[in-house]
Every structure is written in structure tokens, then in C-alpha cells.
């Protein structure tokens, strides 16, 4: 079973445990259930190169998306439990607004949702919504570039945040192309990386091979050393 299917199994199992407990839960309980479910399958949530302390809290977004859009549990979830996912509903609503509104309107409406101008943490979670919908196959179209573009126009003061998200997105797409056999050597990889960056409009956000290697491991659960002929990673050179 590949890591994506394992993660889906984790999220499905977590919902089974949540529903079995009725409405007697807190957000801390949700996080604990999620953490235990991941540990039981020997995997961790989707993440970038860093391993933040709040990764399981962030993955409540994945839990909510799988429960509502994947399993269709909306009518079965007790109101007390659904209320615990209020932040996640806000991230999904903000992502939808960003994709379907002009920048000025998106800025005002998203600011209203969160009661303040969103900071880097909030914007990253809005992006995470689209990442996870794409990753778990709930969307056929990859809307991440459009989301980054629209949010960057709505919140230009967060340029550093969008450069970081662009770097992560480019690494995900390059890693995916390598794994799928679309990119088979170092030259093709460099060209593909540049093409994704140009399409995204982020030439300054191009990730190096070390970063792409980390994404292959953390997002796709594969050993980067398998692709040593394509990636010229410093870690691999040392290994």
C-alpha cells in the first residue's frame, strides 16, 4: 500500500473512532485520535521539508475534507463535533473565495471570515486545502497555481509567504513528474523545474535538488536515493 492510501486509511479510521464517541470530544481529542491513527499505520501527515510541532492540528484540514467530501459524513457528524471544525470550514470557504473572486473582493471577504488580515499561518492553511484536495484526488484540476496567484494579488504584503508556497508547489510538481516517469534525467528535470516556475510566475522560488528530495520523502513516502541519477542532492553525494 503506497503512502497516499495509508494516509487515507488513517483519516477514515480516525472518523470511525470520532463517530463512535458521539459528541463528547474537544479539538485536543481530535488531534490525539489523529495522532494515534497515524502512529498505528506508521506514517505521518502530508508536510513539507520542515516538521512543525502543530502538524497534527494542521492535518485536521485533511480529516475534515475526507470526512465531508470523501466519505460524505456531513449528516452523520454530531453538531458538537462539527462545531469543532469551525476553523477548517473557514479555510475551505476562504480557498473557494480566493479561486472565484477578484483580488479586492477576496481580500475583504477573507479578512471578514478571520476577523483580521490573514497572516502567513492562515494563508498557508488556505493553500493546504487545495494541496490536500489535489493530493487525495478530490479535485481533477490542479488549482494551486491559480490560488497562489489570486491570494498573492489579494495580500501583496505577504510576498515572502507566497514565494515559500511557490517553492513547495514547484517541488511537489517536479517530484510527481519524476515519480511518474515523466522526467527521467537531470537535464529534463532542470527544464521541467524552470517550466513550472515560469508557468507559476515565480522564477525566484525555484527549489534546489535537496529540497525536492525531501518532498519526495515527506509527501510521497519514497526514498530519494532511488532517483539519484535525476537529483544532484548534496545529501546523496555525501551518502
Description:
Helix 1 packs across helix 4, helix 7 crosses helix 9 and helix 10 packs across helix 12. The protein is globular. It is built from 13 helices and no strands. The chain has a domain of 76 residues. With 239 residues, it is mainly α.
Whole-number mean pLDDT: 93
- Outline the low-pLDDT stretches: 235-239
Fraction of residues in β-strands = under 5%
| Spatial shape | globular
The residue fraction in helices comes out at 55-70%
The biggest beta sheet reads:
none
Order of helices and strands: HHHHHHHHHHHHH
CA-based gyration radius? 18 Å
State the distance separating the first and last CA atoms: 27 Å
Total strands: 0
Number of helices: 13
Structural class: mainly alpha
List the helices and strands and how they pair.
Elements: H1 3-20, H2 27-41, H3 55-58, H4 60-70, H5 79-84, H6 86-100, H7 103-114, H8 120-135, H9 144-154, H10 159-179, H11 186-200, H12 209-218, H13 234-238
Helix pairs in contact: 1-2, 1-4, 6-7, 6-8, 7-9, 8-9, 9-10, 10-11, 10-12
Jot down its keywords.
single chain; mainly alpha; disordered C terminus; 239 residues; 13 helices
Kindly summarize this structure in a few lines.
The protein has 239 residues and is an all-alpha fold. The chain contains 13 helices and no strands.
Amino acid at each position: 500500500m503506497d503512502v497516499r492510501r495509508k494516509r487515507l486509511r488513517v483519516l477514515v479510521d480516525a472518523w470511525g473512532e470520532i463517530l463512535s464517541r458521539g459528541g463528547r470530544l474537544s479539538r485536543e481529542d481530535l488531534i490525539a485520535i489523529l495522532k494515534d491513527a497515524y502512529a498505528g499505520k506508521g506514517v505521518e501527515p502530508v508536510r513539507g521539508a520542515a516538521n512543525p510541532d502543530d502538524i497534527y492540528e494542521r492535518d485536521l484540514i485533511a480529516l475534515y475534507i475526507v470526512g465531508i467530501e470523501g466519505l460524505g459524513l456531513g449528516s452523520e457528524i454530531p453538531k458538537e463535533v462539527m462545531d469543532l471544525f469551525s476553523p477548517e470550514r473557514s479555510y475551505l470557504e476562504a480557498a473557494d473565495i480566493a479561486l472565484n473572486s477578484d483580488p479586492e473582493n477576496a481580500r475583504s471577504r477573507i479578512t471578514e471570515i478571520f476577523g483580521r488580515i490573514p497572516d502567513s499561518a492562515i494563508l498557508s492553511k488556505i493553500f493546504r486545502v487545495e494541496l490536500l484536495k489535489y493530493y487525495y484526488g478530490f479535485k481533477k484540476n490542479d488549482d494551486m497555481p491559480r490560488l497562489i496567484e489570486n491570494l498573492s494579488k489579494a495580500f501583496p504584503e505577504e510576498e515572502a509567504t507566497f514565494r515559500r508556497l511557490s517553492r513547495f508547489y514547484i517541488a511537489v510538481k517536479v517530484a510527481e513528474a519524476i515519480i511518474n516517469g515523466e522526467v527521467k534525467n537531470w537535464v529534463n528535470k532542470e527544464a521541467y523545474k524552470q517550466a513550472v516556475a515560469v508557468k507559476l510566475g515565480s522564477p525566484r522560488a525555484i527549489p534546489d535538488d535537496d529540497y525536492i528530495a525531501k518532498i519526495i520523502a515527506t509527501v510521497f513516502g519514497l526514498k530519494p536515493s532511488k532517483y539519484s541519477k535525476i537529483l544532484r542532492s548534496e545529501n546523496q553525494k555525501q551518502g
